[in-house]
Amino acid sequence: MSSISGTEYPLELMLAIVKNLSNFSCLNVSGEISIVCRAFLLARYNVSIEDQRPPFLTDAWLVPLFFALIMLVGLVGNALVIYVISKHKQMKTVTNFYIANLATTDITFLVCCVPFTATIYPLPSWIFGDFMCRCVNYLQQVTAQATCITLTAMSVDRCYVTVYPLQSLRHRTPRKVLALSLAIWIGSFVLSIPFAMYQKLSTGYWYGPQTYCTEAFPTVLHQKALTLYTFLAVYLLPLITICLCYTYMLKHMSRPVVEPIDNNNQIQLLAERSEATRAKISKMVVVIVLLFTVCWGPIQLFILFQAFQSSFEKSYETYKIKIFAHCMSYSNSSVNPIVYAFMGANFRKAFKRTFPFVFKQRVETSSRGAGNREVRFMTTGT
């Protein structure tokens, strides 16, 4: 996941103008733009710094509002998933433990990262200090890393249980999944350390002295290496692994399990059920892969292009593209419960048992609607 430093384009645009003044320093000892620079900006660019406030752009309220919606849906959905799994004994399966770990990564990301990132858009400065600057970006990478590894592990597990159903009964246990989940978190914390090392506070001028949380790499090579690592570890390699697992799984499921001897009804019914199961799993596979690709693809490709394309120029247009890409990646944490949990029949049954009053009301409403339609048919014939 990218650093939050990519959102302070107004500072970068102003510094791009100031860099044209190579004969003298624009910032004085107090961090303000000098009188000479102010005169130059006014004469050449028609930019006046005196007595102005930062412009209140649309993204200053729209992006935080969208992030708030993501937090609301994501926190409620993921918390309900964990609650249902922990409350019902029959829900404590290997696959559901993976889903619970995935929900935990999403909740951690939504609580520890999204609120701080949302403040960047309405506020001109980073107000949370150096520690939170490093911590927020570090936890952002940790949760992204843990999410991708969990998705990969879950895909490998589903492939294993489908291709080798008998062997998996001996090796797939909830205790082993818990140990693997702990290892995923420890590995993610270790692998994400560089993202805390290369974050720092910097000062600049944007309608007054401002403080920013930015990336600070020793060399351009360090920046490119870390960007490439993020693209491979958090996007490309997990995506390739997931696609390979489900491709192999679907290929295995396409083989006939029962060799029909005659065309009796029982054999035909088994064949139809098998075909329906394969179709349902195929749809789930497509949703999983497409969701992962669509949500994470834009921001990963944007960061990769920004780091390796020498002709890349930062502008307000690219700034808006990056905002959209960030929103897409953040939304993945709120839609995961829908895809990985609520589409499952066992989860739906568990939710009906946990919240019977909600589903009972829906059933009663549906029954009344059916009765009304029947009365209308009897009286009008339509």
TrEMBL record:
Presence of keyword Membrane: yes
TM annotation in the entry: 61-85, 97-118, 138-156, 177-198, 228-249, 284-303, 323-343
Gene3D superfamilies found in the cross-reference section: Rhodopsin 7-helix transmembrane proteins (1.20.1070.10)
Keywords per UniProt: Cell membrane, Disulfide bond, G-protein coupled receptor, Glycoprotein, Membrane, Receptor, Transducer, Transmembrane, Transmembrane helix
Molecular function terms from GO: G protein-coupled peptide receptor activity
Compartments it resides in: Cell membrane
Location, primary (coarse class): membrane
Stored CDD domains: 7tmA_KiSS1R
Membrane topology label: Multi-pass membrane protein
One Gene Ontology cellular component annotation held by this UniProt entry: plasma membrane
Record has Phosphoprotein as a keyword: no
Domain G-protein coupled receptors family 1 profile stretches: 77-340
Protein name: G-protein coupled receptors family 1 profile domain-containing protein
